[in-house]
Amino acid sequence: MSGKLSRRSGAVDPFIVMDVMAAAAEKEAAGDAVIHLEVGQPSTPAPKGALAAARAALDSDRIGYVAALGIPALRERISRHYREFYGADVPAERVIVTTGSSGGFPLAFLACFDAGDRVALAAPGYPAYRNILAALNLEAVDLPTSAADRFQPTVAALEKAGRIDGLILASPSNPTGTMVDRAELKALADWCQRNGVRLISDEIYHGIVYEGETASAVEVSDSAVVVNSFSKYFSMTGWRIGWLVVPPDLVRPIERLTQNFFISVPTLSQHAALAAFECRDELDGHVRRYRINRDLLMAGLPTAGFDRLTPAQGAFYIYADVSHLTNDSREFCSRMLREAGVATTPGVDFDRARGTGTLRISFAGSTAEMEDAVRRLKAWQRT
Ligand SMILES: Cc1ncc(COP(=O)(O)O)c(C=O)c1O
Questions:
Q1: Which CATH architecture describes the domain 48-278?
Q2: Of 36, 225, 268, 332, which is least surrounded by CB within 10 A?
């Protein structure tokens, strides 16, 4: 007899991009070159200053457990970041260091919602939101978006969503790179406030922005939970470190949860993250490269038959409508990988219902790789 399996873990879907990465690795193991446009992470390591701080901490620090909410110096530095970057006053007491933003989501969801609560989110969107919600017995309520609303939720869409308890917003968005401006963010935050809906604002791609204004929910709402990370702009994915900004009444509930779930966040990563704030020149250099890559693909992909592209305002993704080329994005992506050696992510990862006709192209790699990808796709198109 086998042991019990929970229904809620069965409700969690796989992350399909992981399957694409496995197929790409198999092709490479067979000796073929693959251009990786499927990856959702910077191709660069942590900035030099962060690496130096980590090396120094290894020699000088015990790397033991630390305070559940994060080391005070890092919470203070994040608070200063809000003053410098957004001109916003966010006391360090409201900053909570987390194990990547991924570690922040379950803490925020558990502190804000009860089992059965309904949380709205844009489709297409980052798949882990709905999967974490499912694992916690929370109901994800899709807000289908389109190019007309720049793939972002609107007040009109919220009015039609029925009773909801929360809204997850991601600006810039994964997979579309689109953003809400300050006025739109304020309208959404005000609607949430009026209706007793908790706004969760995923700001993990802040810092990687090419056009438009970068507004944080802390500027327009006293009740929003802001999620951020050192993974993207700071180029520190594997260090698994991020943060939350929460209203004062959520600090203690989240402290209790994190004490019990994690004890504390990796100490070495906290030392490194603290130093990463002083590495802006290096990090801004990465953003300049992403911009060059974005422009190169926006100009080059149409010559290869991909001409229905969402211009990314931020992040490092282009969402491509390929419904004129396929009605099965999974099959299309695996054929593109097999025949052209270019790996991309099928849209069904981000939009179960409508992603059969879309794919996500990541331009986080090198500019030479982007040029090679366009060359390969043009040749593939001719076959
Ligand atoms: C929109 C969004 N939020 C959150 C995450 C999770 O990132 P991390 O846990 O590394 O902070 C990702 C990762 O790709 C993402 O794209």
A1: 3-Layer(aba) Sandwich (3.40)
A2: 268
Q: Which amino acid is at 60?
A: S
Strands 118-123 and 139-144: parallel
Q: Provide the whole-model pTM.
A: 0.96
CB 332 within 8 A of CB 359: yes
Q: Let me know how long the chain is.
A: 383
- For residue 225, report the distance from its CA to the centre of ligand 1, in Å: 15
Give me ligand 1 centre to Cα 381, in Å. Answer: 32
Ligand 1 lined by 264 (C-beta under 6 Å): no
CA-nearest of 290, 251, 339 to 69 is: 251
At 57-114, the pLDDT tens digits run: 999 999 999 999 999 999 999 999 999 999 999 999 999 999 999 999 999 999 999 9
Q: Are 107 and 261 in contact (CB under 8 A)?
A: yes
State the DSSP string of 91-116: -GGGEEEESHHHHHHHHHHHHH--TT
Q: Which CATH architecture has domain 7-45+281-382?
A: 3-Layer(aba) Sandwich (3.40)
Q: Are 313 and 210 in contact, with CB atoms under 8 Å apart?
A: yes
What tens digit of pLDDT does each residue of 143-199 get?
999 999 999 999 999 999 999 999 999 999 999 999 999 999 999 999 999 999 999
